[in-house]
Design brief:
Layout: H1 25-34, E1 45-49, E2 56-61, H2 65-84, H3 87-103, H4 105-116, H5 120-145, E3 148-150, E4 158-166, E5 169-173, H6 181-192, E6 196-200, H7 206-218, E7 226-228, H8 233-243, E8 246-250, H9 253-266, E9 269-273, E10 278-282, H10 288-300, E11 310-316, H11 317-332, H12 352-367, E12 371-374, E13 390-393, H13 400-403, E14 410-416, H14 419-427, E15 431-432, E16 434-438, H15 443-447, E17 454-457, H16 462-465, E18 475-476, E19 479-480, H17 485-490, E20 493-501, H18 514-529
Parallel strand pairs: 5-6, 5-8, 6-7, 8-9, 10-11, 10-16, 11-14, 13-14, 16-17
Antiparallel strand pairs: 1-2, 3-4, 4-20, 9-19, 12-13, 15-18
Length: 532
């Protein structure tokens, strides 16, 4: 199996001191961050270890059932005052937060890397994204949430308004793969809309979420308005669902269904971003070199541990012989490295479960006739959970890697003879989260036929994700509801209609008989139907 370049250098190459890596961020912040956990300290503690080398990152107290109850109680009390504040005051918090994220980027990058094992560039994607999203929320949020005049039943006589009322306390459960983007990204619109938040970050990456909370409080967020509880999802999750007014979940489709069932029993709203088996289509008129370079980023950012990363590439036969070697050359040149430096193109997987799944998918594929074109090997000499970026060919439908989400640095290549074949193959999945099309002229037409919540043309995933004014989410088994855009704010509210009637009641003026009123109303309806 082909080998991937490795490096053991941990030296950063940043020219700005604020971007230079440190070495002891968890130790420096650990004690302070532990105090931000909603816990009385009576339910034990968790030891967090780094995927780079299994070293201890820190120890944090776990939350008991009573701690969860208290977190919701205090958040609910704080929410009433927060919702009553002028929107401009709430907006100011997130303007300051956006700036603080950039100011503290070096420490944030260190903590994210220590907890996830990802490359520094992948960690920086989180920092840049959160700052931009918070800034967008501050600028566009008031427009998404403003009270709107709506047409009334009778022009002039009926004055109707739609307003957006905070739901109350939003329960949020986030995974380990983007421990800054997802907790902060979900909290910002929920809080700006006037809610409180109780967050359960993944048990493998809690320091990053706590750092986000610390920055929000430094930006002016009231102390009790956002609470973080720690503990196993099997215990904390149901306790949150019982108390929340709305749930936001990111994770696997299987767990998402369980959360949805719990929310249904409580009759509360629910939004989820779930799994994906995302396709890329390289059409006959694609710029092959651009597509090959874009595919590397689309497949292997964050070591492939990204819900919207590409796991299937369909390449038109006319460009197969040009695309495949160009792609493989770039994959084989990727630099794997542990540590906080900027030199790595790809870092570690999060832990043993992900490494086992990646290895199992590759082994099953090879055992059933697939070929490894690049990578294929674990790299224990770099760290306990490192695995090479891997490219497979001759993958068939019955293989696990063909249908199941790998969530790791593995992509399969498939030749196709037409756009129609590529579109049909791309849509042949239970998932529908993200897709990518590479073409000089047919990208838009093909994109409209793909069953995915976001489709990127001549990009892998970042163009759609980072277009924060537009909604982002999945079709089919990839989720429900949307992040970003107006829906990303309004889902955290209850729409309320207020209609004031004057002069003439809807039921007709006093003294007019039912038949006469129906005749008059019929004439009025005919007139109104011509204009609306």
């Amino acid at each position: 199996m082909a080998s991937i370049t490795s490096t053991t250098s941990l030296a950063g190459t940043a020219t700005n001191a604020a971007d230079s890596p440190g070495q002891d961020a968890p130790g420096r912040l650990g004690g302070h961050l532990a105090g931000l956990v909603a816990s009385a300290g009576k339910h034990g503690s968790a030891t967090i270890r780094s995927p780079f080398d299994d070293a201890v990152v820190g120890r944090l107290p776990l939350s008991s059932d009573e701690d969860v109850e208290q977190a919701f109680r205090s958040a609910r009390a704080a929410q009433r005052d927060w919702a009553a504040r002028p929107l401009a005051e709430r907006v100011a918090v997130f303007r300051r937060f956006a700036e603080l994220v950039i100011d503290e980027r070096s420490a944030l990058l260190d903590v994210i890397q220590h907890e996830t094992g990802k490359a520094r560039l992948s960690a920086f994607e989180e920092v840049a994204d959160v700052s931009r999203w918070a800034s967008h929320a501050a600028h566009a949020g008031p427009g998404y949430l403003r009270e709107r005049r709506r047409p009334g039943v009778f022009p002039v006589l009926t004055r109707t308004h739609e307003r957006f009322v905070p739901r109350g306390v939003i329960g949020t459960i986030t995974p380990w793969n983007y421990p800054f983007t997802l907790p902060a990204g979900d909290a910002v619109p929920a809080l700006l809309a006037g809610n409180a938040v109780v967050l359960k970050p993944d048990s493998q990456t809690p320091h990053t979420a706590l750092f986000a909370l610390e920055l929000l409080r430094r930006a002016g967020l009231p102390a009790d308005l956002m609470q973080i509880v720690l503990g196993p999802g099997s215990r904390i999750g149901p306790a949150m669902i019982e108390r929340a007014d709305f749930m936001m979940f990111t994770g696997s489709t299987a767990t998402g269904k369980t959360v949805a069932e719990g929310c249904a029993s409580q009759l509360i709203g629910f939004s989820a971003e779930l799994g994906g088996k995302n396709p890329m289509l390289v059409l006959a008129d694609a710029d092959v070199q651009r597509a090959a370079a874009g595919a590397v980023n689309a497949c292997f950012s964050n070591s492939g541990q990204l819900c919207i990363s590409i796991e299937r590439i369909y390449v038109h036969g006319d460009v197969w012989d040009a695309f495949v070697p160009a792609f493989l050359e770039r994959v084989r040149a990727m630099r794997l490295a542990p540590g906080l430096g900027w030199d790595a193109d790809m870092g570690s997987l999060i832990g043993p479960d992900q490494l086992e799944k990646v290895s199992d998918h590759i082994r099953d594929a090879v055992d059933h006739g697939a070929k490894v074109l690049a990578g294929g090997n674990a790299r224990p000499e770099l760290g306990p959970y490192f695995h090479e970026p891997t490219v497979l060919a001759d993958v068939r439908r019955g293989m696990a890697v063909a249908r199941e989400e790998t969530f790791g640095p593995v992509v399969s290549l498939y030749p196709v003879d037409s756009d129609e074949e590529a579109i049909a193959a791309a849509n042949d999945t239970e998932y529908g989260l993200n897709a990518s099309v590479w073409s000089r002229g047919r990208g838009a037409a093909v994109a409209r036929r793909l069953q995915a919540g976001t489709v990127n043309i001549n990009e892998g995933y970042a163009a759609a994700w980072a277009s924060h004014a537009s909604p982002m989410g999945g079709m089919k088994a990839s989720g429900m509801g949307r992040r970003h855009g107006a829906e990303g704010f309004q889902k955290f509210t209850e729409p309320q209609t207020i209609a004031a009637q004057r002069l003439l009641p809807v039921g007709g003026p006093p003294g007019m008989g039912h038949e006469r009123w129906s005749q008059a109303l019929s004439a009025g309806v005919r007139i109104l139907n011509r204009f609306s």
